[in-house]
Amino acid sequence: MATDAPPPSKEERPLPSAEEFSEVQQSAEFAELRRSFRSFAFPLTIAFVAWYLLYVLLSNYAGGFMGTKLFGNINVAFVFGIAQFVTTFLIAWWYSRHAAAKLDPKAEAIKTRMEGGA
Amino acid sequence: MSPAQTVFAAELAANEASEHRPLIITLFSVFVVATLVITVWAGRQTKDAADFYAGGRSFSAFQNGLAVSGDYMSAASFLGIAGAIALFGYDGFLYSIGFLVAWLVALLLVAEPLRNSGRYTMGDVLAYRMRQRPVRTAAGTSTIVVSIFYLLAQMAGAGVLVSLLLGITSDAGKILIVALVGVLMIVYVTIGGMKGTTWVQMVKAVLLIGGTILITFLVLLKFDFNISDLLGKAADNSGAGAAFLEPGLQYGASGTTKLDFISLGIALVLGTAGLPHILIRFYTVPNAKAARKSVNWAIGIIGAFYLMTIALGFGAAALIGKDEIVASNPSGNTAAPLLALHVGGVDSAWGAILLATISAVAFATILAVVAGLTLASSSSFAHDIYANVIRKGQATEKEEMKAARWATVFIGIVSIALGALARDLNVAGLVALAFAVAASANLPTILYSLFWKRFTTQGALWSIYGGLIVAVGLVLFSPVVSGDPTAMFPDVDFAWFPLKNPGIISIPFGFLMGWLGTVLSKEEPDKAKYAELEVRSLTGTGAH
């Protein structure tokens, strides 16, 4: 059972010094990590919030359009709602793929070096 | 159905329930005993502060994903959303969508950096590069306020269930049940700590998902798995016709209500990533990668659950009908348990068993969420306020844990008292208020702290207190509290703020104050500390 595993937090490693942190923060390698995180996460956040707000606003001010029946009793509003679910699942999957491919290796490299040197 | 018949039907449901009271009580007792055993077992393994606050950081991503889902799918989700959809059709569905999309903010911006740079509480991250004492005091205050709003909603849900199930309509009876919930939650948290609470959440999540799948299946079976037929029948029986399936039934009445809809929508999507009881869950896994995976699990589980609220809500509208739902509870909070009775057959033993099962699941849901909320607020009190402000970081781990346990008892008593007051309020709406407060006070400060290097102590204080005061203040003067038949105090009217949800004003205000406080502050931001926070939050260097 997972709870029987030794907690990794118990042995307190000394933190690297303030100088080391500043040095790493200024390094090109860290700048690259920050860039690949921010240039992915920030625009994507703006995009899904905008997509969600579009849905909220259409619900409010475009009732006729949202009420248009597509097939049977399924209307545009219903499809729009389900689409929000689908995009949420897709974005979560997409971000995780990006993080595993582009962020984790860079983060891991910096962490290993800093903790090894501490 | 005529009004007389409707009242009769509601009474029938209540009688049906009370006839099977022993079954309901048995099922509920089984859950309580099982969770108490887990709690005692977890308590024996809780030795140091990392165990108590963070479950030893040894849960797997899947376990935590399940526990996060358990913490998140509260009485509001289960009882509130089903009721909102059953009464207002499509407008109720906004809750499901907003509650889910909100997880992307947590996934993309908050979960991993928080796990990497914090230790036990939200305050750890907020105060990281700031002056500790004022910022921790602020973080602790907003944690406790948000949690109490959320607790109120759960307690109100407990009261509603009790009157339906046990036929207890007297105030004394309801208060007794609220007190029982309070005592159980004190036991869970003081003895089991985060480890026990996490296991309780997992058990509850499995029960809730299982129960929801069962009811969804039975509803769909009645319509040969044709969603269009289900929606059509719901529209027919709602009394609203096709409008039931379109936006606007609840919020489309006027410009003000439309604004309220936007306000609610914003609060839902931005609130999750500022909820302290959700944030501390990310400390229970070994590292940021596991935190990310647990959010992904949670998105999958919660998403599936909210998709099923379509069947619950529209199913209730189709199979029970609006009149009976309203007769049972004016806010629709009992639609889900009533639906269980109807899909099983109103006069059959099967229907009664389903009603009992679903009600026990709803009770379990409330109990578990209440425990999670209490843990979040007592952790923040002990770690942020007691250890770092009152004792200035000089308290030992033992003293800190003792403070946390006492805080739990205290918060338990406070929430019993408040719960007794809030027992008749609308459940989903109350939770939306907690979301609005979290999005106004906590989210701006978290995002600025992590991503804006100029952010200062004054900025942090202004955004926490500014967001908090405006959000709570607007609620106080809103139709939720007075001047409306469904208000807390319906007989007085001091509601000059027309919206029921303050988000549209208070959330931008929180962000604005954080910015203003920073550009107006005389102190320089601590560059070295920001370097440390930024490197740690992105790489996990030195993570606890």
Description:
The complex is a heterodimer of chains A (118) and B (544). With 118 residues, chain A is mainly α. Helices cover 75% and strands 4% of the residues of chain A. Chain A has one domain. A two-stranded antiparallel sheet of chain A has the order 1-2. In chain A, a hairpin with a 2-residue loop joins strand 1 (69-71) and strand 2 (74-75). The radius of gyration of chain A is 23 Å and the shape is elongated. Chain B is an all-alpha fold and 544 residues long. Chain B has one domain (3-427): Sodium/glucose cotransporter (Up-down Bundle).
Spell out the blueprint of helices and strands.
The complex is a heterodimer of chains A (118) and B (544).
Chain A: H1 18-26, H2 28-61, H3 63-66, E1 69-71, E2 74-75, H4 76-117
Antiparallel strand pairs in A: 1-2
Helix pairs in contact in A: 2-4
Chain B: H1 3-19, H2 21-44, H3 49-54, H4 61-72, H5 75-88, H6 90-117, H7 122-126, H8 132-165, H9 171-222, H10 227-238, H11 255-271, H12 276-279, H13 288-319, H14 322-328, H15 335-344, H16 349-390, H17 397-421, H18 427-451, H19 457-476, H20 503-519, H21 527-539
Helix pairs in contact in B: 1-14, 2-9, 2-16, 4-9, 4-13, 5-6, 5-8, 5-13, 5-18, 6-11, 6-13, 6-18, 6-21, 8-9, 8-16, 8-17, 8-18, 8-19, 9-13, 9-15, 9-16, 9-17, 10-13, 11-18, 11-20, 13-15, 15-16, 16-17, 18-19, 18-20, 19-20
